[in-house]
């Protein structure tokens, strides 16, 4: 069982699936929106706690079980019939019988025309596509720590790297990377993205990479039925339009509440465990 997301929904799913003796791997990093919360008052039984301490309690609970964790970023999930293929930025692939998507939702809206130029000058993995831009000019729009390492990596290959800093003030970038602190507004171009228009600047480049915590669900899982930024689920079992693929937490829609995420993670895990058991019975 592959679980994408290391927040409350993902950890809840991993815990409950592990109790049912399933082989589990969880992908993702700690959720910044939770760990930075100053105070949480509505988590039943644990009043007046900050997000970091609550998350650490979740992690401590999972330590009692045999759960594999990986910080590798899942790039895409393909339904292959009897199994799922998960691809990664380093081109590697793993197979899973069932998948639970619990990666949260991307609250940041796309930059105007971003969707229009995806695959046409705009990408989401600089390390994957670095060879395409050897000797060229590249812009990284960075929203997280991963974007810093991506910028440093591709800078060794391309002619010029510009980093649009949407992450934080102090970032550890190579000295020859130009940093711009400005807000992206729109991509423009003819058949491909050629220019990034910001509030105070304009940057022409050969390629653009938007590096953020999560991508739209339909980019993560092609052919998955969605509604806006959310995955459509049957809330009785958290199943999706693809058999064997389940979803839980903020990615399924409002409300964005920790207790809701934990509950959906449990339901998704029980459903995924039943799915695996059903597959095993058919094989026998």
Question: What's the layout of helices and strands?
Answer:
Elements (H helix, E strand, L loop, with lengths): L1 E3 L3 H12 L5 E3 L4 H4 L15 H12 L5 E3 L3 E6 L4 E5 L4 E4 L2 E3 L20 E2 L2 H4 L7 E6 L2 H11 L4 E6 L12 E3 L3 E5 L6 E4 L3 E3 L2 E5 L5 H4 L5 E2 L2 E2 L13 E3 L10 H26 L1
Parallel strand pairs: 1-2, 1-7, 2-3, 7-18, 8-15, 9-10, 9-15, 10-11
Antiparallel strand pairs: 4-5, 5-6, 12-13, 13-14, 16-17
Helix pairs in contact: 1-3, 1-7
Q: What distance separates the N and C termini? A: 19 Å
Give the overall shape. globular
H-E string: EHEHHEEEEEEHEHEEEEEEHEEEH
* Uncertain ranges: none
Rg over CA atoms, rounded to whole Å, is 20 Å
Number of strands: 18
Helix/strand-derived class? Answer: alpha/beta
With helices defined by DSSP (H or I, 4 residues minimum), what is the helix count? Answer: 7
Beta fraction of the residues? 15-25%
Instruction: Strand order, main sheet: write it out.
Output: 3-2-1-7-18
Approximate helicity band: 25-40%
For the sheet with most strands, the description reads: 5 strands, parallel
Give the overall pLDDT as a whole number.
91
Q: Main traits of this protein?
A:
284 residues; alpha/beta; 5-stranded parallel sheet; 26% helix; globular
Architecture overview:
Helix content is 26%, strand content 24%. The chain is an alpha/beta fold. Strands 3-2-1-7-18 form a 5-stranded parallel beta sheet, covered by helices on one side. A 5-stranded parallel beta sheet has the order 8-15-9-10-11, with helices on one face. A 3-stranded antiparallel beta sheet has the order 4-5-6, with no helix packed on it. A hairpin with a 6-residue loop joins strand 12 and strand 13. The radius of gyration is 20 Å and the shape is globular. It starts with a strand and ends with a helix. The mean pLDDT is 91.
């Amino acid at each position: 069982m592959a679980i994408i997301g290391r927040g409350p929904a993902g950890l809840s799913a991993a815990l409950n699936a592990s109790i049912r003796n399933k082989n589990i791997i969880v992908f993702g990093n700690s959720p910044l929106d939770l760990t930075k919360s100053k105070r949480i008052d509505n988590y039943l039984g644990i009043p007046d706690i900050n997000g970091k301490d609550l998350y650490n309690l979740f992690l401590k609970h999972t330590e009692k079980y045999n759960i594999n964790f990986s910080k590798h970023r899942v790039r895409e999930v393909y339904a292959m019939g009897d199994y799922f293929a998960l691809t990664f930025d380093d081109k590697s692939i793993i197979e899973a019988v069932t998948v639970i998507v619990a990666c949260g939702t991307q609250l940041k809206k796309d930059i105007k025309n971003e969707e229009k130029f995806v695959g046409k000058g705009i990408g989401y993995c600089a390390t994957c596509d670095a060879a395409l831009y050897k000797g060229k000019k590249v812009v990284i729009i960075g929203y997280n720590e991963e974007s810093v390492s991506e910028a440093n990596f591709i800078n060794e290959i391309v002619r010029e790297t510009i980093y649009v800093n949407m992450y934080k003030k102090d970032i550890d970038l190579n000295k020859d990377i130009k940093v711009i602190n400005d807000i992206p507004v729109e991509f423009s171009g003819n058949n491909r993205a050629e220019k990034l228009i910001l509030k105070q600047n304009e940057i022409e480049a050969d390629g653009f990479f938007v590096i953020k915590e999560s991508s739209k669900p339909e980019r993560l899982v092609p052919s998955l039925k969605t509604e806006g930024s959310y995955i459509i689920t049957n809330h009785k079992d958290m199943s999706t339009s693809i058999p064997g693929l389940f979803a839980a937490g903020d990615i399924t829609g409002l409300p964005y509440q920790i207790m809701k995420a934990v509950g959906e993670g449990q339901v998704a895990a029980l459903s995924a465990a039943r799915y695996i058991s059903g597959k095993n019975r058919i094989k026998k």
